[in-house]
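It is worth pausing here to work through a concrete case rather than discussing structure prediction in the abstract. The textbook approach is simple: state the sequence, then state the predicted structure, then interpret. We follow exactly that order.
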Amino acid sequence: MTETLDTTKINEIRAIIDRGLGTTQSRELIAASEVADLLLDLRLLLVTSEADLEAAPSN
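Step two, the predicted structure:
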């Protein structure tokens, strides 16, 4: 089975990544907790997408 993300989820993920990069690109050091928060936000979106895919009826 091929799993795909819808455009809305992809745009949300891009926005989170862009925000993270925007706030950290000019800094030399980034706290591990900031990186962990960013990754957890992305993981939450992906897990939600996965749950949506599993709940969708298969035709």
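Step three, interpretation. The radius of gyration is 14 Å. The longest helix spans residues 32-55.
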